[in-house]
């Protein structure tokens, strides 16, 4: 059965609490892009929170600023402009606080689930389920935005 048309995300951002986590989480997003869970043209960013215990509001604003910087550069602007955000579909996912039951945090906790429709057999974690829900169930038909 063919997967229904989902949202073609312009940017997917994963916020994380610690600088040490950024590279690992970026790599995890890239692995999902190679597995074709995320379209090849989607900009993937793992962004450190600007300050310790900044909260999801501060992390969201920081992630949006980083997305605007990258999209502005990609569009050829020499300064950051909000014009690039008008037609962008941006998904911001927050890692949240430390999770004592898994070293990689809540997002990468493996689930006892199988995805028979996946192009590659792989472990399924919370992040994969969230991407599927946002891309194919909640997002379709929505206008550009965050």
Automatic annotation (TrEMBL):
Q: What is this protein called?
A: Fucose kinase
Q: Does the keyword Metal-binding apply?
A: no
Source species, domain of life: Eukaryota
Could you tell me the Gene Ontology terms of the biological process aspect for this record? Answer: GDP-L-fucose biosynthetic process
Q: Which Pfam families match?
A: Fucose_pyrophosphorylase
Q: Which InterPro entries match?
A: GDP_fucose_pyrophosphorylase (IPR012887), GHMP_Kinase-Related (IPR052203)
Record has Kinase as a keyword:
yes
Q: Which UniProt keywords apply?
A: Kinase, Nucleotide-binding, Transferase
Annotated PANTHER family = L-FUCOSE KINASE
Q: Where is the GDP-fucose pyrophosphorylase domain?
A: 82-146
A GO term, aspect molecular function:
kinase activity
What gene is this protein translated from? FCSK
| Phylogenetic placement of the source organism | Eukaryota, Metazoa, Chordata, Craniata, Vertebrata
């Amino acid at each position: 059965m063919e997967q229904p048309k989902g949202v073609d995300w312009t940017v997917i951002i994963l916020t994380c609490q610690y600088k040490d986590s950024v590279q690992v989480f970026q790599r995890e997003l890239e692995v999902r892009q190679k597995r074709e869970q995320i379209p090849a043209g989607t900009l993937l960013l793992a962004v450190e929170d600007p300050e310790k215990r900044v909260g999801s509001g501060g992390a969201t604003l920081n992630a949006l600023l980083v997305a605007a910087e990258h999209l502005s550069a990609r569009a050829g602007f020499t300064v950051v402009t909000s014009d690039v955000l008008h037609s962008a579909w941006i998904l911001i996912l927050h890692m949240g606080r430390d999770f004592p039951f898994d070293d990689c945090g809540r997002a990468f906790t493996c689930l006892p689930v199988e995805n028979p429709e996946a192009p590659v057999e792989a472990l399924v974690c919370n992040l994969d389920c969230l991407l599927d829900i946002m891309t194919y169930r909640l997002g379709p038909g929505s206008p550009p935005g965050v």
